[in-house]
Specification:
The chain has about 300 residues and is an alpha/beta fold. About 40% of the residues lie in helices and about 20% in strands. The protein is globular. The structure holds glutathione. Glutathione binds next to helix 1 and helix 3.
């Protein structure tokens, strides 16, 4: 089986979530660095319009969103499990909370002026302007927390996580790491990019020790790959992962649809429906350079709409 290709960039927390999962599972992988702001022509060639980071590729299959990427990696390499028996439900619920609620407290908290200069160290003023201009439409429609809101929320959330570890457990849902640990860890990892902001973790002794345990899993074994080579890899692959459209879910195989994230970065991807279940939606699309691709999204958090007939 060929290694997965992760398309990511260094300072991306959700990429760190996947890098840590690859580390926990001891996997070898190909690493393609993508730009952190638009334009991203090589990204869009593969995803069809989805611009969020990271996404994963193998051959001509593309997986978007870390909740789905985590499931795919867990299927490919089941040990150690991301969804341990007995806590599989709660660990995914905690991960979902961290990936949205905790994340969107961490971002405005960390990017206050004294943190921003560290996260963006070395970026010239025009780069900072371009970043702000890129992210405004990306999060349009979301209520961005003020620094004061985010600080009070984050203090409460960190306190709750500290409580969760009060019985001396090594990881958030028990003795083994699970998806919840990686979803919380990538948020705390982002605060670590801005050392002056770390004071908020000072009272959380157990959480700080937990963080060191999670980060210690490392990133597995990455090999650098160029985005042009990843595109060529897709173009030279004529097979896809087996998928099917299950009946009774509101859509038929072969229908033209759009798939769009419901929270932010709401760029629709157009394609022909080839796979649908309660967990996943898969569309087929063609790109001049990358050939015929299957783009997979999680079903939860994504809206499917039939394309209007012309
Ligand atoms: N729910 C998504 C969230 C991904 C996300 O918000 N990624 C950030 C980077 S950490 C992003 O896409 N930023 C804009 C960009 O990279 O263009 C996931 O789990 O993958």
């Amino acid at each position: 089986m060929k290694p997965f290709i992760l398309h990511h960039y260094a300072n991306s927390p959700f990429s760190e979530k996947v890098r840590l999962i690859l580390g926990a599972k001891g996997m070898a992988w190909h690493s393609v660095h993508v730009p952190s702001v638009m334009p991203k022509p090589d990204v869009l060639a593969l995803t069809g319009g989805y611009r969020r980071t990271p996404f994963m590729q193998r051959g001509a299959d593309i997986w978007c969103d870390t909740s789905l990427i985590a499931r795919v990696l867990d299927r490919a390499q089941p040990q150690p499990p991301l969804y341990p028996a007995g806590v599989a439900g709660i660990t995914q619920t905690l991960a979902q909370w961290a990936d949205f609620t905790l994340f969107w407290a961490v971002i405005p908290y960390t990017l206050q002026p004294q943190g921003l200069t560290h996260v963006m160290a070395g970026v010239p003023p025009e780069g900072l302007k371009a970043f702000a201009a890129d992210r405004a439409p990306f999060t349009a429609g979301m209520t961005r927390q003020t620094a004061a809101d985010a600080t009070v929320a984050l203090k409460a959330y960190l306190g709750r996580l500290e409580d969760q570890l009060a019985d001396g457990r090594a990881f958030l849902c028990g003795a083994q790491p699970s998806i919840a640990d990686f979803s919380v860890a990538h948020c705390l990892w982002f605060i670590h990019l801005a050392p002056p902001m770390l004071g908020i973790l000072q009272p959380c002794e157990r959480l700080r020790a937990w963080y060191e345990r999670v980060i210690a899993v490392g990133h597995g074994t990455p090999t650098i790959m160029k985005s042009a080579d990843a595109i060529a890899r897709a173009a030279s692959t004529s097979t896809h992962e087996p998928v099917q459209v299950e009946p009774g879910l509101g859509f038929e195989v072969g229908e033209s649809v759009t798939v769009t994230p419901t929270d932010y970065g709401r760029d629709p991807v157009v394609g022909v429906l080839v796979g649908l279940s309660d967990d996943e939606v898969v569309i087929e699309r063609r790109d001049e350079r990358a050939g015929t691709l299957h783009v997979h999204f999680p079903r939860l958090g994504f809206q499917i709409r039939k394309e209007a007939k012309t």
